[in-house]
Write a sequence for this structure.
């Protein structure tokens, strides 16, 4: 299949499906060359190798959005998932266009909390007086959530957090508020709450499909932390028995996991922390050290390749891949870039102005606090 780029006005994804890897690589690089500094390609740490090799910048979702907004690129091609592209649109410059090469690249965790459910939960809590004059509740959302939920937090005095700054932000908001309502990852919320000595019986789990989230009024009044019942389908696959098994096989191995893992796993691990923490820990570890890592497989594989003198392995024997992020393949990237060359912006992700305004307030509270700290 041969297409001459300059002759193309718009290009169809179907034309790319039969191309060889080599052909796709060539097309991606040719399009990048033509677009020059007009485009920046972002690759999330969990992205597949054949896509990440084309990225100008790699990082976690928050780092990437900030880095992209600091460039003058007209087009930000985000090889990640939908909420990340939304964040790039919120944090980016007004004239920057954000492109998600496959609109099917969502996040199962972000999809577990929609704005109608969150507003309904807040209303129910207000009706029973758990939110109100005499009970100050801070809504806090993990970066891995929709723009609408970030905006909800902005409107209601709350904030956004990442897995890197969840601990200091919990510290601040737990001191200033009677309770926190944390969306959408119950595990990050629970693991962070436990670091502040909040007992499990003071953490209520809010199931959006049940009245009062499946709790009694009393339980909600007593709770210090209300956790939305969401989780990451990738990190949720690590189980406590994986830790037992790996320790049995290799007694001197260290277990390092992401706090999106369930707390029974985090409890058994030696260390837990954000993606950046995981990378830094392995980078700084002595040669010969052994690590079993509980996070997305592409990141673990790359750590393995970067540090052949350290033993790095995935905590689980089976594949723990972010299947939605994997949807962004070289075909999608080549297609999106060739369309830009042809003057067509495909799969643009935009957040409406009102949502953007409030989401930015919640993000700015985080940024201001993190920078001060
Ligand atoms: S790894 Fe989990 S939280 Fe991250 S994008 Fe994939 S599904 Fe969402």
């Amino acid at each position: 299949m041969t297409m001459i780029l300059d002759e193309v006005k718009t290009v169809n994804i179907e034309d790319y499906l039969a191309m060889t890897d080599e052909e796709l690589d060539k097309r991606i690089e040719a399009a990048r060359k033509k677009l020059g500094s007009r485009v920046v390609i972002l690759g999330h740490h969990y992205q597949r190798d054949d896509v990440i090799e084309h990225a100008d910048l790699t990082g976690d979702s928050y780092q990437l959005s900030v880095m992209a907004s600091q460039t003058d690129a007209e087009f930000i091609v985000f090889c990640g998932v939908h909420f990340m592209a939304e964040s790039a649109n919120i944090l980016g410059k007004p004239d920057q266009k954000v492109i998600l090469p496959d609109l099917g690249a969502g996040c199962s965790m972000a999809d577990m909390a929609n704005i109608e459910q969150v507003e309904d939960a807040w209303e129910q809590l207000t009706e029973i007086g758990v939110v109100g004059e005499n009970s100050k509740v801070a809504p806090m959302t993990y970066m891995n959530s929709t723009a609408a939920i970030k905006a909800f937090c902005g409107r209601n005095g709350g904030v956004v957090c990442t897995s890197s700054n969840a601990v200091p932000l919990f510290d601040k908001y737990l001191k200033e508020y009677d309770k926190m309502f944390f969306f959408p990852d119950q595990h990050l919320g629970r693991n962070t709450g436990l670091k502040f000595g909040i007992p499990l019986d003071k953490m209520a789990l809010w199931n959006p499909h049940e009245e009062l989230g499946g709790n009694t009024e009393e339980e909600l009044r007593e709770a210090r932390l209300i956790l939305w019942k969401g989780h990451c389908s990738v990190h949720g696959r690590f189980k406590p028995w994986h830790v037992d098994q790996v320790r049995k096989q290799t007694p001197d191995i260290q277990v390092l996991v992401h706090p999106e893992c369930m707390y029974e796993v985090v409890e058994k691990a030696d260390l837990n922390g954000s993606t950046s923490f995981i990378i830094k820990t392995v980078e700084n570890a002595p040669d010969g050290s052994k690590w079993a890592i509980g996070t997305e497989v592409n990141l673990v594989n790359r750590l393995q390749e970067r540090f052949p003198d350290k033993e790095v392995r995935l905590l689980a024997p089976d594949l723990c891949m972010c299947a939605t992020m994997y949807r962004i393949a070289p075909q999608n990237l080549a297609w999106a870039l060739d369309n830009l060359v042809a003057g067509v912006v495909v799969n643009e992700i935009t957040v409406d102005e009102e949502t953007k305004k409030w989401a930015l307030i919640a993000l700015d509270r985080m940024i201001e606090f993190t920078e001060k700290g």
User: Anything to note?
Assistant: Residues 46, 81, 107-109, 144, 232-234, 296, 322, 324-325 surround iron/sulfur cluster (CB under 6 Å). The mean pLDDT is 94. The first strand starts at residue 39 and ends at 44. The longest helix spans residues 353-372.
